[in-house]
Specification:
Layout lengths: L6 E4 L5 H12 L3 E6 L3 H13 L3 E6 L5 H15 L4 E4 L14 H29 L2 E6 L2 H5 L5 H21 L4 E8 L12 H9 L9 H12 L10 E4 L6
Parallel strand pairs: 1-2, 1-4, 2-3, 4-5, 5-6, 6-7
Helix pairs in contact: 1-8, 3-4, 4-6
The structure holds NADP nicotinamide-adenine-dinucleotide phosphate (NAP).
Length: about 250
């Protein structure tokens, strides 16, 4: 199996894209560590499902925007597993609003989870991975971070930031044997996009060459590639998973 006994941390694993990534990595032999913030029951249910299917999974609570909670999470990983092979920085939040209507508290929350949270986990993971001179970090960006969208100034800013962090971290960590890549999904069918208007979603699908909405599994398959030795000479890249959306 492609990820036999690899120790993989997936942030925001309780639902949506993170859930599907976790299932696919576990199905390929990984020991998955399912991070959640508020959805403890959903995360435990997922762990139980993976274990029932013969996989290996455990859950760990941490708000990725809190340095203290992230430190505790990595302490747990060091104690339980001694090493980390793959980090999937998937946790993220979306609060669509026109910039002129966006409260400062929303700016802070989106920045804290999407950008600071990604940095917090990437930095702690790199410290663990450098000791064994190998590791793979995959950051969840978005098509919005590459091309922008009205109503997503803050969200798009965080996702452009994730792409920027990915390129610089790849250069810094490459000599330590660690690859860092990003995935930039288009419109993917999860709870996150429930807040988008139906007409807007229909327009996006119409602008997509493949004429369908993406599924979490579409993203998970690319994350599997970036987590495995199939991508050993790939670093600093952002791979779009958007059905060729014309923006
Ligand atoms: P989702 O269904 O809303 O799930 C978000 C996940 O992030 C949940 O598991 C949630 O866990 C977790 N999370 C939120 N805040 C957290 C925090 N402070 N600490 C730890 N975990 C936290 O979203 P999704 O659609 O699967 O999105 C996953 C990633 O893909 C995000 O980074 C998103 O920006 C990106 N993305 C999504 C789309 C799309 O169309 N869906 C497109 C492009 C990019 P709890 O419930 O436990 O808090």
């Amino acid at each position: 199996m492609m990820l036999q006994d690899k120790i993989c941390l997936v942030t925001g694993a309780s639902r949506g894209i993170g859930r599907e990534i976790s299932r696919l990595l576990a199905g390929n032999g990984a020991q998955v560590i399912l991070n959640y913030n508020s959805s403890a029951t959903a995360a435990q249910k997922l762990a139980d499902e993976i274990i029932a299917e013969g996989g290996k999974a455990t859950t760990v609570k941490a708000d990725v925007s809190s340095r203290e909670e992230v430190d505790e999470m990595f302490k747990f990983i060091r104690k339980e597993f001694k090493r980390l092979d793959v980090l999937v920085n998937n946790a993220g939040i979306l609060r669509d609003n026109l910039m002129l209507m966006t409260p400062d508290s929303d700016y802070d929350a989106i920045m804290d989870v999407n950008l600071k949270g990604t940095y917090n986990c990437m930095q702690r993971a790199a410290k663990m991975m450098m000791r064994k001179q190998s590791g793979k970090i995959i950051n969840m960006a978005s098509i919005i971070g590459r091309y922008g969208n009205a109503g997503q100034v803050v969200y798009g800013g965080t996702k452009a930031g994730v792409i920027g962090m990915t390129m610089s971290a790849a250069k810094e960590l490459g000599p330590l044997g660690i690859t860092v890549n990003a995935v930039a999904p288009g419109l993917i069918e999860t709870e996150m996009i429930d807040q988008l208007k139906d007409e807007f979603k229909a327009k996006l699908i119409d602008n997509t060459a493949l004429k369908r909405i993406g599924k979490p599994i579409d993203v998970a398959r690319v994350v599997l590639f970036l987590s495995s030795e199939l991508s050993d000479y790939v670093s600093g890249q952002t791979i779009g998973v958007d059905g060729c959306q014309v923006v």
